[in-house]
Amino acid sequence: MSERSPAPGGLGLVETLVNTLDLETGADSLDTGEGRARLGLTQDDVPAARELRESLRATLLAHAGHPPHRAVTPLGELLAAAPLVVAVDPADGSAALAPAGEGSLTARVAAAVAQALVAGTWSRFKACEAADCHWAYYDRSPAGRGRWCSMQVCGARAKMRRYRAKES
C-alpha cells in the first residue's frame, strides 16, 4: 500500500513479512509459493511465520502509540527462541548478532531487530494507524510522528472521514 521507500537495513525483511497480509482485501502472500519463496519459507513454516507477523504488527502499532490489533504472542517470547551468534568481521573487527546455522525466519528477524536497536531505527518502524491497513513502514518524518503508511491513501481517507464527520 505504501509509496514510501523500504525500511533501512534488516528492517526490510521485517517490513516484507508484516506486509504479506493486505487487511483490506484479506490477500495473504504467504498462501502462494512465490510469497513464501521471497522469505525463504516452506508451507510448513507458514503458521509460525503468521504468528511472528502478527506479533510484529502489534509491536509496530505500539511504536505508533496504538493498542494491539488483536491478542498475540508477545514478540519477546517469539524472539527468545531465536538462535543467534555474535559474528565478528575479521577485516575490521566489527561485530553483530547474526542467525545461527541456516537462519530461521525468527532468527533473521531477531538479528534485524538487534541491528535496528543498535542503529537507533527500531522505534521509528511503525504500523499504519488505519484499522483496515496496519501496513508496516519506516517513519522518516523529522519529528518521528508519522501516522499512515501512505498520506495519499490512508492519510487522505482519515482526513476525509474527519471532514465528513464535521459536516454532519
TrEMBL record:
Q: Where is the Zinc finger CGNR domain?
A: 124-166
Please name the Pfam families in this protein's record.
ABATE, zf-CGNR
Q: Which domain of life is it from?
A: Bacteria
Q: SUPFAM superfamilies, per this entry?
A: Jann2411-like
What is the name listed in the Swiss-Prot or TrEMBL entry for this protein?
CGNR zinc finger domain-containing protein
Species name: Streptomyces rubrogriseus
